[in-house]
Hints:
Elements: H1 14-23, H2 29-32, E1 40-41, E2 47-51, H3 56-61, H4 68-79, E3 88-91, H5 105-122, E4 126-130, H6 132-139, H7 145-148, E5 153-155, E6 158-163, H8 166-170, H9 173-191
Parallel strand pairs: 2-3, 2-4, 4-6
Antiparallel strand pairs: 1-3, 5-6
The structure holds uracil.
Amino acid sequence: MPEGTKPKHPKIPLEELAAEVAQCRKCPLAEGRTHTVFGVGNPHARVLFVGEAPGKNEDLQGEPFVGAAGKYLNELLAIAGLRREDIYIANVLKCRPPGNRDPRPEEIAICTPYLREQTRTIDPEFIVTLGNFSTKFILKTERGITRLHGELLHAGRFKVFPVFHPAAALYDVRKREALENDFFTLGELLKGQRE
Ligand code: URA
């Protein structure tokens, strides 16, 4: 290895990471959970979607985006020419915050090493950040999603495309329009028809 090159640890297989997450008791969210929600999808996906945290349905089923926001996400994926089986979906937090409150900074700090490893293992070309929490975490920015959505950005070797959270857009027509436009743009980016 050339001098000055940081040694990298090997990629951790997703099954191994999922087993570790299932046992995790590093923060108090472990006490209230039914299931951890590690993530699902194609382990070799070109596009990784990152949401915020499991809601009630996700906690009960142990899978991300299975509730109302998940149904809407499926429609959005179709706009971009994607199917659930093409992509990987994970969240910033692997356990449900009580009453779906916002993730706390200390929970994000404790939980995100799992997301970081998951991202290294999947090694996607694109990361689509759904909403403020994942956008701020992935881009290490304080700029909000309202300003950033629909712009192709970069974090290290990853192309990052922030969009509104589908749950936030469900009851807000303006966000819904923006989100659907952004998924159309995502489809074009994936087809290489836009820079
Ligand atoms: N909202 C999220 O951010 N993630 C889920 O898994 C479900 C709803």
